[in-house]
Amino acid sequence: MWAYLRRNPSLLVGLILLGIVLAFAGIGRLVWDTSMAAPLSSMPNQGPSWEHPLGTDRQGRDILAVMIVGTPLTLYIGVLAGLLGVIVGTILALLSGYFGGIIDSIVRGIVDVGLTIPPLLVLILVAVSVRANLSISQMALVVASLAWLWPARTIRSQVLTLRERAWVQVARLSGASHSQILFFEVLPNLLPYLMATFVGAVASAILASIGLEVIGLGPMEANTLGMTIYWVSYYAALLHGMWWWFLPPIVIIIAIFVSLFAISAGLDEFANPRRRRAV
Amino acid sequence: MRLQYVMRRFLLLFLVVWVAATLNFFLPRLGGRDPIRQKLMQQAGAGGYVHTGIDEMVQEYNRKFGLDKPLWQQYLTYLGDVFRLDLGYSIAHYPRRVSDVLAESLPWTIGLLATTTILAFVVGTILGALLGWPRSPRFVQYLFPPLLTLSAVPYFLLGLLLLYLFAFRLKLLPLFGGYTPGTFPSFSLSFALDVLRHSILPAASILLASLGFWALGMRAMTVTVEGEDFMTFAEAIGLRDRTLFYHYVIRNALLPQTTALGLALGQILSGALLVEVVFSYPGIGTTLYHSIRTFDYFMIQGIVFTVVLGVTFATFILDLLYPLIDPRITYQAR
């Protein structure tokens, strides 16, 4: 494991970076009073001090506490939406790639049409149509409503190549049922791709959720990273030079994206060793 | 074969537009909100009127906007309207039509997006090719880590950082808007320069953040093409480096890049809309942001539909151009 990681620097860097972000949220929760993430719990508009290392915002939240609470919430939305997306996408990909025919045409048609439409706009429509105030989990569901499109397309093309492999033919000739072939011959060989696709899906789900939050369609009561950015723009923190308010969420979000990007590139190399020179 | 390809693309175009219109129609109605009542209540609240007679007014407006008819009839009317590009009235700016508001903001978005996308594509592709080419100058390699990082950063976060740094701290460029408040859009040199100054930061955020995407894709393709047999042959017969690079590597590596352009259009647009919000740039994104705040039902629908229409047409045109670059594409059923 360690020896492999040393040969795959992008996976290593990504894991370390993600580890730092997780450690920040985990250790922070133990040593810092997170009740200060609530509005009006501290003096508003304070710059960094010993009492509030990252200062406070316009509504009297301690920014450090908000970051400690918000980072896991944002990750949760991404992981839940990404997981749902990959599960639904994989099921559709298996059905359409393995069986072909009419199911394949339908799934392919839906995916082609769905991927052409800019995702943020559909999500905005969905979020506007659902009730005014979303909870964190509803937010994840909204994002998941489109998160399956891309996994369905990429995994389907993998299923297409796997279906014709010799060992699958052998299984078919020896009388294995379709579900046996799917679960014991095709799925295990898909696992590395599924991991890479999952990480990619998490990243795009987080991006989509932050986009929705910034435009004002997020969970108003929750202190996610995206909502912090929303309040930053709502109260024009930039024009008041309150850097301690907007820099921390930006830094954490960028760290999350860079780490996920590096991990997915690393997993890609793991799943597809032939690309080793290319990535 | 050619005709069949064009027909397929056309069918996809038609499907996407129809799906977008249908989603547009049904999604907001699933929410069970009553935008007219909300708007009237809001106005009544702001004006301090008594709330009597609101119900009659709601009914009157519902009749006026055709919201009292059965759903299927509304749907057919809607499809008919959309077909004629009639997007109805804005609720928040009532007497104005959605299409009028859009006509004002569309040029800003198209101008910003077209310039940055083409620029990012060209520059990113060249950088990527140089990154993947073993005989390119040494310093190019140093660009790789920053490009990799930039490609992972969301456009609007980069926008926030640039805004803080160059507009707030260094006071080099304007803080918000598409032109200085108080001036009126006109075709004069000073106004053009003003617009240019205001668009530098939004354009830079989109450009920098999307540069990495193109560069990474092109780099991977260049490395792949490098390993092909025809490259070994071309090197063996002693072709010059320049010939190899321009005529062998770039030409072949460019093909997947153009496909990616079609696929990424929607993503780039989503990112650009948020950049507009960050900079209060007077384009579609900012208009959308304000109509979400005021829950301007028809405006949101109109914007979503127009943008989908735009992206789909752009993709359609790219799809039609693609066989000219790579004739193989028409023969494959994909």
UniProtKB/TrEMBL annotation, chain A:
Q: Which residues form a coiled coil?
A: none
Q: Which GO terms describe its cellular component?
A: plasma membrane
Report domain ABC transmembrane type-1 positions.
71-264
Membrane topology designation: Multi-pass membrane protein
Subcellular localization(s) per the UniProt record: Cell membrane
The portions of this protein that span the membrane are: 12-32, 75-98, 110-130, 136-154, 190-212, 224-244, 250-267
- UniProt keyword annotations, A-Z: Membrane, Transmembrane, Transmembrane helix, Transport
Q: Name one Pfam family in it.
A: BPD_transp_1
Which Gene Ontology biological process is one annotated for this entry? transmembrane transport
Q: Does the keyword Cell cycle apply?
A: no
> Member of which family?
Belongs to the binding-protein-dependent transport system permease family.
The identity of this protein, by name, is Maltose ABC transporter, permease
Query: In which organism is this protein found?
Result: Thermomicrobium roseum (strain ATCC 27502 / DSM 5159 / P-2)
